[in-house]
C-alpha cells in the first residue's frame, strides 16, 4: 500500500509544476458561453448556442468556448466561479452566462476577474447597482413575442380555455405570462368581439426552467392535465418543448389541440402539425454588440432590453425578438396576426395601457396610464382575470 | 489488497474506459491528458480538486466508523443535507445578531448537530424498530431532500421568487474566509487532515476502535463478551452523522454561500465508494479521495474540449469499485 501511495505522490508532484494551460493563438479573441441546458434543447439554450456560433462565424478572429448543462442537478459540485476560472485559463476575455439561475455565481466570478468582461442574460444586477463595472445585462423584449403567442392562441381556441405552462415564479416569468394574457384578451375582446367572461387563461408553474425529475412538477403531466380538462391551446413558458410534444401526441389520439413553444426559432419542428407558432429570441444582435465592445476595448456597463426590428421581426441580423408562424396556424389567423404585428410596430396599439389591475385587485395601471419599462420589468403580480398563483405558496 | 491486485484493478478499469472512449468516438489519450490537465493545469485547477477532496475525506472519515462496525450508512447524503440546513438556519436566523465569526462557529456546530440527528434517527430505527439502516437511510435521504425543497420554495424563498436556484446568497461577511486568489480554504484542508488522523487514531489505537471492529466481524461473539451492540451502533452513527453534517457546513459556507437543492453534490454516495474501495481502511482514503476528486474536476474538460459527456468520470469511479470488489472476491476464493 505504501509503495502505491509514494508512487502516486511522486507522479502528482512531478507533473504539478507544469503549466498546461492552452495558450491561444495571438490574434484570437476567445469568448465563453455557459448554457444552463443542453445545447440542443430546441429551446432557450439552443437559441443562445446558435447565436454564439453565428457570432463566431461572422466576426473574424473570434472563437467560442462553451459548456452546456450548467446547473447543479446535471453537474453536481460544479460552480459558476469554477467554470469561469476554467474559461479564463483557456484565454476567454468575455463570458456569457445564459441563465437567471447563474445570477449570483456570475457576479461572484465577475468580481474575481475584473479584467474579463461578463454578460448575464435576463438579469438586472446593473439596474439594481449590484453589478461590478465589468458585468452587463442583456434581454430581448419578449413581451411582444408573448403577446403574439397569446393573440394566436385566443384566435384559435375552440373552448376558450388557454393554458400557460410557466417555469418558476419571478418578475420575468410573471411579465411574460401577463403579456400572453394581454395578447389573448385583445384578440378575444377586440378582434373576435366575444364575451370577456368566456375566456379562461390559466397559469401553472412547474418550479424551474426545465424538468428536473423529482424536484419540479413534470411539464409533460401539467400539459396533459391542461388538455384533459378542456384546454385546447397551451402556451409554453419553459426552456424545453414538452408542451408541443404532448400536443402532438394528443392530436394523434384525435384531440384537436395546439401548443405554442418558446425560445427557439425552429422549435415547431418537434410537432409541426400542432404548432401555432413560436415566439423566439435572436441573441445574435445583442451578442455581436457586446463581443465587439469587449474586443475593441470600448466596453461600458449596460443594461440592454432589445426590441424586435418592426420592419422585419424575423431578420436574424437586426431583430432580437421574432415570431415564426407555425404550420397549424389557419390562414385567416395568420392574416390577423400580421395586422396585429403592424399595429404593435407602428405604436398605434399598446396593450400595457390602463385600466389594468393586479390579481389582488390593486391598481397596476390607472385609466389611460401607459406602463413604463421598469413597471413592466418588475411585474409584481399576475393580472386580474388570469387564473393561477402570482407567487409561490 | 496487494500491489499486484491494485495493478490488475487499474489496468482493468483503464482498458474498459478506453473501450468506452473509443465507442463514443473520443481519442482516449487526449481524454486522459485533458482530465489530468484539468486537475493539475494550474493552482486554480488544483484548488478545485481540493474543494472536492475536503468533503470526500471528511465524509469518508465518518463512514469509516460505521463501516468498521458493519453498518451501511447510506443515509449519509441526507446527513450532509441536514448539516447544510442546520448551518443555513443559523446564518439566516442570527445574521444581524452576532459577529460573523461567532455565527460561523455556531453554524458549524448546528450543522454537526443536524447531521448527527439524522444519523441517529436511522440508528434509532435500527435499534428500536429493527429497520435495516439501508432502508431507513434511503428513506431519510428523501425526507431530507424534500425538506430542503420545502425550505427553498417556502420559508427561505427569495423575495418574490420561487425557484430551484436556492436561497438568497448569504451576506459576504458570512462566507467562510478564503485567502484572496486561493479558491480553497487552507483551514478546511487542515481540518480534513486532522480529522483523518484523529479517525485513524480512534479506530486503531483506542478500545472503542477495537470494539467497533469486533462488532463488525462478529456481532454475536461481541455480545458474548458483554459488548453492547446498541450503544456502539448509536455512537458510530453519531460520528458518521457529525462528520457528514460538517460537510454540509462546508458546502453551504465555503462553496455555494447559500442553500441549493443539490447541496450535497452527491459527495455522500461518492464517499461510500471511496471507503469501500479503501476496504474500510483509513490509509488509502486520502489517495482514493484525491483520485476521485481529480476525475470529478478534470472531467469537466471532456464536454468543454472534446464535446463528450463528463459523466465518464462517474463511469470510471464506479468501475474502480466494481473491479476492486471483483478482484477481492477472486482472491478470497483462490
Structure, described:
- The complex is a heterodimer of chains A (393) and B (334).
- By secondary structure, chain A is α/β, with parallel strands linked by helices.
- Chain A has 12 helices and 15 strands.
- In chain A, the strands form 4 sheets. Chain A has a 6-stranded parallel sheet with strand order 2-1-3-4-5-11, with helices on both faces. Chain A has a 5-stranded parallel sheet with strand order 9-8-6-7-15, sandwiched between helices.
- In chain A, strand 1, helix 2 and strand 2 form a beta-alpha-beta unit.
- The longest helix of chain A is centred in the middle third of the chain and has 21 residues.
- About 4% of the residues of chain A have low confidence.
- With 334 residues, chain B is an all-alpha fold.
- Chain B is built from 14 helices and no strands.
- In chain B, helix 5 runs antiparallel to helix 6.
- At the A-B interface, helix 1, strand 2, helix 3 and helix 4 of A face helix 2, helix 3, helix 6 and helix 12 of B.
Q: Spell out the helices and strands of chain B N to C.
A: HHHHHHHHHHHHHH
Give me the strand/helix succession of chain A: HEHEHEHEHEHEHEHEHEEHEEHEEHE
Estimate what percentage of residues of chain A fall within beta strands. 15-25%
Helices of chain A, by number, come to 12
The residue fraction in helices of chain B comes out at over 70%
> Proportion of β residues of chain B?
under 5%
Q: Largest interface, and how many residues on either side?
A: A-B, 51 and 48 residues
Strand order of the largest sheet of chain A: 2-1-3-4-5-11
Structural class of chain A: alpha/beta
Instruction: Give the name of the CATH architecture of chain B.
Output: Orthogonal Bundle
- How would you classify the helix and strand content of chain B by structural class? mainly alpha
Q: Characterize the biggest β-sheet of chain B.
A: none
Q: Write down how many β-strands of chain A occur, each being a DSSP E stretch of 2 or more residues.
A: 15
Distance between the termini of chain B: 14 Å
What is the CA-based Rg of chain B, rounded?
21 Å
User: Can you tell me the CATH superfamily of the largest domain in chain A?
Assistant: Response regulator
CA distance, first residue to last residue of chain A: 56 Å
Amino acid at each position: 500500500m505504501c509503495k502505491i501511495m509514494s508512487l502516486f505522490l511522486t507522479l502528482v508532484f512531478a507533473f504539478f509544476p507544469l503549466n498546461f494551460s492552452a495558450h491561444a493563438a495571438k490574434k484570437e479573441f476567445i469568448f465563453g458561453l455557459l448554457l444552463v441546458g443542453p445545447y440542443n434543447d430546441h429551446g432557450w439554450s439552443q437559441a443562445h448556442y446558435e447565436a454564439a456560433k453565428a457570432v463566431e462565424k461572422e466576426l473574424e478572429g473570434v472563437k467560442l468556448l462553451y459548456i452546456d448543462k450548467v446547473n447543479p442537478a446535471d453537474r453536481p459540485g460544479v460552480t459558476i466561479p469554477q467554470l469561469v476560472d476554467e474559461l479564463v485559463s483557456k484565454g476567454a476575455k468575455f463570458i456569457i452566462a445564459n441563465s437567471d439561475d447563474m445570477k449570483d455565481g456570475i457576479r461572484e466570478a465577475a468580481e474575481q476577474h475584473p479584467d474579463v468582461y461578463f454578460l448575464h442574460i435576463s438579469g438586472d444586477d446593473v439596474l439594481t447597482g449590484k453589478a461590478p463595472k465589468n458585468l452587463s445585462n442583456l434581454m430581448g423584449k419578449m413581451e411582444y413575442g408573448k403577446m403574439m403567442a397569446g393573440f394566436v392562441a385566443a384566435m384559435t381556441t375552440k373552448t376558450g380555455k388557454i393554458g400557460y405552462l410557466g417555469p418558476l415564479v419571478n418578475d420575468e416569468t410573471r411579465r411574460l405570462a401577463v403579456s400572453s394574457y394581454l395578447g389573448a384578451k385583445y384578440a378575444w375582446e377586440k378582434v373576435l368581439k366575444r364575451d370577456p367572461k368566456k375566456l379562461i387563461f390559466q397559469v401553472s408553474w412547474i418550479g424551474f426552467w426545465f424538468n428536473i425529475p423529482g424536484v419540479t412538477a413534470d411539464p409533460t403531466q401539467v400539459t396533459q392535465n391542461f388538455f384533459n380538462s378542456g384546454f385546447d391551446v397551451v402556451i409554453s413558458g419553459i426552456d424545453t418543448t414538452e408542451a408541443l410534444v404532448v400536443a402532438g401526441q394528443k392530436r394523434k389520439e384525435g384531440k384537436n389541440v395546439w401548443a405554442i413553444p418558446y425560445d427557439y426559432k425552429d422549435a415547431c419542428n418537434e410537432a409541426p402539425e400542432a404548432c401555432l407558432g413560436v415566439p423566439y429570441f435572436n441573441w445574435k444582435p445583442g451578442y455581436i454588440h457586446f463581443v465587439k465592445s469587449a474586443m475593441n476595448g470600448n466596453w461600458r456597463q449596460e443594461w440592454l432590453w432589445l426590441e424586435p426590428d418592426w420592419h422585419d421581426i424575423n431578420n436574424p441580423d437586426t431583430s432580437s425578438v421574432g415570431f415564426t408562424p407555425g404550420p397549424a396556424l389557419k390562414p385567416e389567423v395568420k392574416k390577423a396576426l400580421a395586422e396585429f404585428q403592424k399595429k404593435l410596430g407602428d405604436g398605434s396599439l399598446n396593450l400595457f395601457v390602463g385600466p389594468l389591475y393586479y390579481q389582488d385587485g390593486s391598481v397596476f395601471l390607472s385609466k389611460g396610464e401607459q406602463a413604463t419599462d421598469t413597471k413592466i420589468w418588475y411585474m409584481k403580480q399576475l393580472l386580474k382575470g388570469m387564473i393561477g398563483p402570482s407567487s409561490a405558496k | 489488497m496487494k500491489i499486484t491486485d491494485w495493478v490488475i484493478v487499474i489496468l482493468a478499469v483503464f482498458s474498459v474506459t478506453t473501450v468506452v472512449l473509443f465507442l463514443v468516438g473520443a481519442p482516449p489519450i487526449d481524454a486522459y491528458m485533458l482530465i489530468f490537465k484539468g486537475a493539475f493545469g494550474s493552482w486554480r485547477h488544483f484548488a478545485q480538486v481540493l474543494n472536492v477532496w475536503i468533503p470526500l475525506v471528511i465524509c469518508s472519515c465518518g463512514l469509516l466508523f460505521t463501516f468498521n462496525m458493519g453498518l451501511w450508512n447510506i443515509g449519509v447524503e441526507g446527513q450532509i443535507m441536514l448539516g447544510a440546513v442546520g448551518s443555513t438556519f443559523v446564518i439566516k436566523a442570527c445574521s444581524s445578531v452576532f459577529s460573523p465569526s461567532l455565527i460561523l462557529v455556531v453554524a458549524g456546530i448546528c450543522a454537526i448537530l443536524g447531521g448527527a440527528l439524522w444519523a441517529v434517527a436511522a440508528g434509532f430505527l435500527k435499534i428500536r424498530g429493527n429497520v435495516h439502516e439501508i432502508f431507513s437511510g434511503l428513506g431519510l435521504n428523501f425526507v431530507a431532500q424534500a425538506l430542503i425543497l420545502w425550505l427553498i420554495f417556502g420559508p427561505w424563498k427569495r423575495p418574490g421568487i420561487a425557484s430551484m436556484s436556492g436561497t438568497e446568497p448569504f451576506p459576504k461577511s458570512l462566507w467562510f474566509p478564503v485567502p484572496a486568489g486561493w479558491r480553497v480554504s487552507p483551514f478546511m484542508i487542515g481540518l480534513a487532515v486532522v480529522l483523518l488522523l484523529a479517525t485513524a487514531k480512534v479506530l486503531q489505537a483506542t478500545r472503542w476502535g477495537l470494539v467497533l471492529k469486533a462488532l463488525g466481524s462478529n456481532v454475536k461473539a461481541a455480545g458474548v463478551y458483554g459488548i453492547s451492540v446498541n450503544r456502539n451502533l448509536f455512537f458510530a452513527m453519531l460520528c458518521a452523522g457529525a462528520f457528514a453534517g460538517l460537510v454540509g457546513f462546508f458546502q453551504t459556507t465555503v462553496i455555494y454561500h447559500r442553500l441549493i437543492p443539490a447541496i450535497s453534490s452527491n459527495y455522500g454516495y461518492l464517499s461510500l465508494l471511496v471507503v469501500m474501495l479503501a476496504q474500510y481502511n483509513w490509509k488509502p482514503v486520502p489517495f482514493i479521495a484525491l483520485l476521485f476528486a481529480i476525475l470529478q474536476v478534470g472531467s469537466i474538460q471532456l464536454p468543454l474540449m472534446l464535446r463528450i459527456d463528463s459523466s465518464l468520470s462517474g463511469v470510471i469511479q464506479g468501475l474502480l469499485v466494481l473491479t476492486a470488489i471483483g478482484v477481492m472476491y477472486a482472491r478470497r476464493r483462490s
